[in-house]
Amino acid sequence: MTKPYLLCGVDEAGRGPWAGPVCAGAVILHPDHPIAGLNDSKKLTEKKRLRLETEIQEKALAWGLGWASPEEIDQLNIRQATHLAMRRAIAAMKVSPDEIQIDGNDVPLDLPCRASAIIKGDGSVAEISAASILAKTARDRLMVELDETYPGYGFSGHKGYGVKLHAEALATLGPCPVHRMSFKPVALAAQRTA
Questions:
Q1: Where exactly are the structural domains of the chain?
Q2: 7-150: CATH architecture
Q3: Contact criterion met (CB below 8 Å) for 46 and 157
């Protein structure tokens, strides 16, 4: 019996926000258990993402999540922290893929097999779509929890992104421990509220 070719899709959520970690997902889909409706997580409703999240976790051959904290983002820069989260997600799978395809145009170093970047891969490669869904649902869930820990910033609504409400809260409250101090709007707010 021939061993199936294991393609791992990788994507991240939370590269652009001012607060919270960046999360990466890695997924190897099961060849005998296809999942209908996979797409770029940003093109799906929250309800559909949550339904697909459960189905991916149940049917995938392997899946993993990797995180990089706001402190790691500040120490490394967002690009390197995203690469770190991706390596952690791949390592969390406990299955070695034959090939890795990553959404976007950037491939981390030190991956366990050959890897390539696919622009708009989250809408065209099922494994990357699945990874994007797992990363987004996990990160969104964490940002809702962080809203309870750090009230007043509106994390549950905007998930840490730089919207007007978030900018106003930063100006009033100053940054909290999960803000990315290396991001310019946060650094400026910290100076003003110091």
A1: 7-150
A2: 2-Layer Sandwich (3.30)
A3: no
